[in-house]
Amino acid sequence: MANNNGTTSAHDQETHSAGDVLARLSRQAIISPEETEFKAGWDTWISRYHNMAEAADVLMNMSRQSMDRSDSTITAESTVSVRTQESPESTWFHALLQEQPLRDFIRLGLKTASLDRAAERKIELVLLVMTARSCVQEACWYLDENDWDIQRAISQYQSDEMQRIINPSQLYLQLNRQATSITSQNFNERMLFIAVPTSHNGKFFPGQFDVNNSEHLRALNQWQADMTRMLRGPPIIPDIVRKGYSPVEQRFMRNRFANDITAFQNGGLANWVAITKEFNDVFQGRYVPGETNPCPERMRGSITNYMIRHFRQGQTGQVLANYNAALRILAVREQEQGEYDAVRARSMPTASILEWDSWDSSSDDAMDWE
To answer: Which runs of consecutive H residues, i.e. helices, occur in 30-89?
Structure first.
């Protein structure tokens, strides 16, 4: 961006240089469907995989100085919404974060209820490594589980992804193809619109779109996938059974329950059907940190049983009212937000204060609680 005197600032030169590096290295590292199915050979895939890792290292080093200079801060208020103010430095998916369902995902699915510009840049850097299957939710989960440390998040993602491709299933390949189904070759303007059964107007892709812009194509694929899940349901995931819930699943589940605290205060009941649907819309068919298989469909009984056992059961064994359970969850959420703010302020990882019973191996599928 040119200054008033017509010159280009060092910050802008750095930003453009990072973009140039990304464009060049991404073109070298993009994995075609044929290569994903190993028709080009294992050595070729591994070579390109390491090229992408090197690209990520270059981009992280170039962007770190820019992010360190940022004066953006993250609010400590647990109920704050995603920032809506546009900025010339906004990332390519900034407009998507203001739209459903990503807006609610950010508000309910992470340790923080809001993202600043620096956090958006970190998400974008992780997404750059996701050449086979770009997904904002998955990028956020890896960052959230690694205290928003880019190097650790990318390292864990690469390690998990390597395990997934050692013996790739047809389901893995299918999910990857679905995540990148819209290309510059098959694009048509109808893809910028999706019909909504309850509306005559439908939904249009937010923001500008240039079919020759790879970031815009990535955003369109993300938007189409999110809207399809919300309106028509997630992809069917057969033959996968998982006991217990990962930390990111636990967080979304409890925050979504507590989101109805106003209704609970007025004597309302938990809408387990809606909670279960929204949970599966977010997770089913996506990969969480530490898992080599995608998340399966969860049944209502599993979710309600987990919530009762972990948040609605009092010290003496009695079942708490929904309102009291929601208050307990909000206290936990406020503590997590404080953790996140402390990490952000120090710009270094920190140990978690909370000791979750993550990866609970007990059977949450045993009973169907109402």
So the answer is: 33-36, 42-68
What gap in Å lies between CA 263 and CA 250, rounded to an integer? Answer: 22
pLDDT tens per residue, range 298-334: 999 999 999 988 888 777 778 889 999 999 999 999 9
What is the C-alpha to C-alpha distance for residues 266 and 86, in angstroms, rounded to an integer? 37
Chain centroid, CA 361 distance in Å:
24
Mean pLDDT of 143-159: 96
Tokens (6 digits) for 365: 């599928």
Residue 127 pLDDT level (bands cut at 50, 70, 90): very high
Say what the pTM is: 0.73
What is the band of 197 on the pLDDT scale with cuts at 50, 70, 90? Answer: confident
Phi/psi at 231 (5° precision):
-95, -30
Assigned token pair, 226: 């999110």
* Residue from 228, 232, 144, 138 nearest 191 by CA: 228
Closest among 45, 52, 43, 115 to 85, alpha carbons compared: 115
Give the C-alpha separation, 164 to 176, whole Å. Answer: 12
* Helical H segments across 270-321, by residue range: 272-283, 300-311
Positive/negative CA dihedral, 73, 77, 79, 85 = negative
Structural contact between residues 311 and 329, judged by C-beta atoms closer than 8 angstroms: yes
Tokens 């209704």 appear where? 263
Residues 6+ away with beta carbon under 8 Å from 249: 279, 283, 288, 295
**Residues present in the chain in total:** 370
Q: Confidence band (pLDDT; 50, 70, 90) for 126?
A: very high
Q: How confident is the model at residue 74 (pLDDT cuts 50, 70, 90)?
A: very low
Tokens of 68: 């360190």
What are the start-end ranges of the H helices in 98-213? 102-109, 117-129, 136-144, 150-166, 170-179
Of the candidates 97, 89, 172, 168, which has an alpha carbon nearest to the alpha carbon of residue 137?
97
